[in-house]
Design a protein that fits this description.
2 helices, 123 residues, 5 strands, globular
Length: 123
């Protein structure tokens, strides 16, 4: 969150949105994994977290890629893709990061593809 254009905002009851303009998918995933590790390192007690007993984070990372001359419906498409990735991470056992990429092809329209899910593996 060191760049001036990066934004962190509360989005819903327990969710935060982290906006990282001009960041690659790998860079966004790196930030998400770092946030997971930093939250675990805080060691905040959470009796409702079975197995760990501390607060953890699940992250849904979404990036957009478009061919030249195309556009993607933003922010709704990007937000939807991040939400799908977040619930994928939660379904894998929490304290995970899942990612998705929105692809725009001129003849095919917008489509989202879940590109990968990797355990945060922190703490």
């Amino acid at each position: 969150m060191k760049r001036p254009d990066n934004v962190v905002a509360r989005f819903g009851g327990e969710e935060l949105a982290v906006l990282l303009p001009d960041t690659s998918a790998a860079g966004a995933e790196k930030v998400a994994h770092s946030l997971c590790a930093r939250i675990v390192d805080l060691g905040i007690p959470h009796s409702g977290n079975d197995g760990r007993g501390i607060v953890t984070m699940s992250g849904g990372v979404s990036t957009a890629a478009a061919n030249s001359g195309c556009c993607i419906r933003m922010p709704s498409g990007l937000l939807r893709a991040a939400d799908v990735a977040l619930y994928r991470a939660k379904s894998l056992g929490r304290n995970q990061v899942a990612s998705s990429t929105l692809l725009k092809m001129p003849a095919e329209g917008m489509r989202g593809a879940l590109t990968g899910t990797r355990p945060a593996n922190h703490g």
